[in-house]
Amino acid sequence: MGFVQRALFTWFILLVFLVVLCLRLENRIYWNWFLVFIPLWLYDVILVAWAVIEIVQRQHANRLISLHHYKYYVVGIVLKFFSQITICLKLEYKSIPMYVMMIPIWMLLALLIVFIGTHLQPKPRSIGSNRSNRQSAGVSS
Q1: What phi, psi does 138 have (nearest 5°)?
Q2: pTM value?
Q3: Of the candidates 52, 50, 27, 24, which has an alpha carbon nearest to the alpha carbon of residue 37?
Q4: Are 84 and 70 in contact (CB under 8 A)?
Q5: Are 41 and 81 in contact (CB under 8 A)?
Q6: Measured between alpha carbons, how far is 133 from 21 in angstroms, rounded to an integer?
Q7: How far is 74 from 48, CA to CA, in rounded Å?
Q8: CB distance 105 to 83 below 8 Å
Q9: In terms of Cα–Cα distance, which of 107, 53, 115 is closest to 78?
């Protein structure tokens, strides 16, 4: 799926979710909260399928270097999915404590901190890599 198609699909799913959410919050529809979140769950399923397809394609091409990126994506999407489930449970059943609802969100934030922290540090360079292209080409001044 190309970038434009993914962006349009994302905006369409978000639009459908927000319309249904507004209708539910204004009491124009009396759906269960789990039904209101179906567009987001559909989007999560498609994201997981896309990540799995990318993993299989990269593994098939023997490009195992960047596979660890996709494990963060899949775990993040699964935690987002659990966060949505706990939000729906909290909205349906008021007796559930707020901290129980927030556990998957906190785990997702911790995962994001680890992902960003491990990918922001510069790559280690080998000794002698500071030489310019001119020096390495054998051109003397």
Answers
A1: 90, 10
A2: 0.71
A3: 24
A4: no
A5: yes
A6: 57
A7: 6
A8: yes
A9: 107
Tokens linked to 121: 């540090």
**Banded pLDDT at 6 (limits 50, 70, 90):** confident
> What region does 98 belong to: left with phi over 0, alpha with psi -120 to 50, or beta?
alpha
Residue type for position 89? L
From residue 42, give the alpha-carbon distance in Å to each of 1, 28, 31, 81, 139: 16, 23, 17, 10, 59
Under 8 Å between Cβ of 42 and 13: yes
Angle between helices 98-120 and 67-92 (to 10 degrees): 160
Map tokens 């785990």 to a residue.
Answer: 107
Q: Could you give the angle at the alpha carbon of 110 between the alpha carbons of 3 and 124, nearest 5°? A: 75
d(CA 69, CA 30): 40
Note the pLDDT tens digit of each residue in 111-136.
999 888 887 877 777 666 555 555 55
- Non-local CB neighbours of 48 within 8 Å, separated by 6+ positions: 74, 77, 78
What does the alpha-carbon distance between residue 41 and residue 33 come to, in Å, rounded to a whole number?
12
